[in-house]
């Protein structure tokens, strides 16, 4: 119909997120990345199931809209858009995408309910369990402490307060 097709030779595995096991509806979300080597920006068509609309934004614009509460990004989307901020030059994006695709692991956040919000622990965080069950339901951990008091030296987590998300990543410090 549109006489176009994906460039699978330049399609890179970016990340893989599994919905936490306590959730009733779960997804194994796999994100891919490709570079478009032309200036034509295509508008996708909504299917009103998973795609309501499509627009082009910079990562900064999306995070700003999310912070203002104008759009809602699910935590994996928010995290991966935040990761794009680390790539400073467009020319290095292809190399970065290739390197990521060779070391992509499935992540499953572990949720903690604190007194003042929720924490999504990610692999590499000191509090992340040594053993997780990907397909067996695990209870939500509840702590009678604030998110700040649960911070540790080696963190890799998202802290959620309403629509606001804050990332802590001290793995390389």
UniProtKB/TrEMBL annotation:
Its cofactor is Mg(2+); Mn(2+). The keyword Transmembrane does not apply. Transmembrane segments: none annotated. Gene3D superfamilies: Nucleoside Triphosphate Pyrophosphohydrolase. One of its GO terms (molecular function) is hydrolase activity, acting on acid anhydrides, in phosphorus-containing anhydrides. Keywords: Hydrolase, Magnesium, Manganese, Metal-binding. The keyword Magnesium applies. GO terms for cellular component: mitochondrion. Belongs to the Nudix hydrolase family. This is Nudix hydrolase domain-containing protein.
């Amino acid at each position: 119909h549109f006489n176009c097709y994906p460039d699978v030779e330049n399609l890179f595995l970016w990340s893989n997120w599994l919905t936490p096991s306590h959730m009733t509806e779960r997804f194994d979300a796999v994100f891919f990345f490709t570079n478009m080597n032309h200036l034509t920006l295509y508008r996708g068509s909504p299917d009103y199931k998973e795609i309501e609309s499509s627009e082009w934004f910079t990562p900064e614009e999306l995070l700003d809209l999310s912070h203002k509460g104008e759009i809602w990004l699910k935590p994996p989307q928010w995290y991966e858009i935040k990761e794009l901020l680390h790539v400073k030059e467009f020319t290095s994006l292809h190399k970065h995408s290739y390197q990521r695709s060779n070391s992509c692991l499935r992540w499953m956040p572990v949720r903690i309910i604190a007194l003042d919000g929720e924490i999504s622990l990610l692999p590499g965080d000191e509090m992340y369990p040594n053993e997780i069950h990907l397909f067996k339901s695990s209870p939500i951990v509840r702590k009678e402490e604030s998110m700040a008091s649960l911070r540790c030296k080696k963190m890799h987590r998202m802290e959620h307060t309403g629509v606001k998300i804050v990332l802590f990543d001290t793995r390389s410090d």
